[in-house]
Amino acid sequence: MDKFTVARMLDEISRYIELSDPNPFKARAFEKAARAVENLEEDIVTLVESGGLKDVSGVGKATGQVIEEIVRTGGSPYLEELRAQYPPGIFELLRVPHLGLKKIGVVYSELGVASIDQLEEAARSGALNKLKGFGAKTTEQILKGVAFARMRESQFLLPVGIEVGELIRERLADFDEIEDAEVSGSVRRRLEVIRNVNIVVATKKPEAVVARLSDLVADVEQLDDTTYRGVARGEVPVLFHLAAPAEFGSVLLRTTGSEEFVEAFGKIAKAKSETDVFKKADLAYVEPERRENAEDLQRKTRRKLVELANLRGTFHVHTTFSDGRNSMQEMLSAAHQRGWEYVGISDHSPTAYYAGGLSPERLKEQHAEIRRHERDVAPMRVFRGTEADILQDGTMDYGPKILSKLDFVIASVHSNFKMDKDEMTDRILRAMDDPNVTFIGHLTGRKLLAREGYTVEYERIFEKAGQRGVMIEINGNPNRLDLDWRHIHRAVDHGVTFSINPDAHSIGEYNAVITGTWVARKGGLSAKHIFNTKTVDEVAEFFASRHAS
DNA sequence: GCCGTTTTCGGCCCGACTGTTTTCAGTCG
Length: 549
What we know:
Layout: H1 3-20, H2 24-38, H3 44-50, H4 61-73, H5 77-85, H6 101-111, H7 116-125, H8 136-153, E1 156-157, H9 158-172, E2 178-184, H10 185-188, E3 193-194, E4 197-203, H11 206-212, E5 218-222, E6 227-232, E7 236-243, H12 248-256, H13 259-265, H14 274-280, H15 294-298, E8 313-317, H16 328-337, E9 342-348, H17 360-374, E10 381-389, H18 400-403, E11 408-412, H19 421-433, E12 439-440, H20 458-468, E13 471-475, H21 488-493, E14 498-501, H22 512-522, H23 536-548
This protein binds one DNA strand through helix 2, helix 4, helix 6 and helix 8.
């Protein structure tokens, strides 16, 4: 039993309580206990055995008993009891925007609504309208939300596609009838949101392969002579493209797309490898990430794209000091294990209350904690930073006195998302005027498949960033991937430098530098455009020069 | 439900926004 499993169960209990209990603090108590468990330094099993659980702040009599039961038996009778009171899948309703646990609790207890279909029916029939607290506008909003949730059902974040594709490819490798298999389509192009997973299979015995597809995916159906469709994980469509080995390269190129790119390519000669297809067409090879537009094919000069191995370190890393899930020690040691030359720690600033933003005193404690652990990770260097809020008027959270003492400052918008384009642009431009600001974090605040970002005038921001030497973050968190790769070339024109940052809230989320690198490649960036390909000395020198100017 | 106390009950992380209200509740970040 590990602490994260315990925390997940406590979170689930918290959600059930919020559905039915009018006292919001009871649900929050379980949530708090979940966070306390996640942040435990000691092994949870040892802690329970030694009776030390009662000394953990945020864990009391009731939550302590639940935790103990989970650790000892793997389950919780209390949670089972709660689960039994509601239909399974009721939390799917959370996918509808503006519908929270309180309202879900009401629609279930009053109308028995426990699925998106039932919710839509209740909205259309007018039953929803009759409930206390639900007016015409709420009904309208919910109907829109239902449509949004349905639309999202058929779209997936890139890592889902990567994982499904790789797992199937690995299993295909065990098939004797298969000579080669490769993921193609939008997953291979590393598009941030995908609709399906495409896999090209080279085989001389297509019938034998088809007979075994149902071992890999459900609901197998034939689309045409060489294409079969199935469903992975109960929701992700997978397309299998069967090819004779001599045509593997041509089919790979055609099914990788994009449609526009393939059309621009013209006649695709039959070939075993993709590089041969390019050769036969007398065209220079184009990396899959760069195959979105016709221009990608026609471009005369091709930069060498940045690679993950070029990154010597990274910035934008949270710890348990604010809303991260791993301690300073864990985050530093995980960065060290990745072989990085440096890492930049940046917890939230005070205005981000909901994320546990650091008061000036806590910031000092954080620095003391860095000092305690940085020798253990030497020679890796630890840079002291912050992810500071850009306030509504464009000034920075924390005063210049604090900001000027830090190695770097990531300036991010976390509030008042609904400002209009000009206001929001002015707000960010003003932040860039602050000499202490080093990076602009997640430029539009978007959450893929969840919410639109705020709108900004890219041209004005890139121009200023170029002039002021402020770097634009490529936030590699797969939910964000913000800056959008479609705008990168315009920033390059203004001489902007980028930083591939993970926005890591746990050691696992350091992997966001991988997705971030894909975005940089899609935007056509080389190592020279990326700040965190620089050596530790170059980085330190740059930070020092910012303070001197 | 948890915490802390001038110890056994009152407060709990804040602000903006929206819709439903006529003074507030729910959602979101």
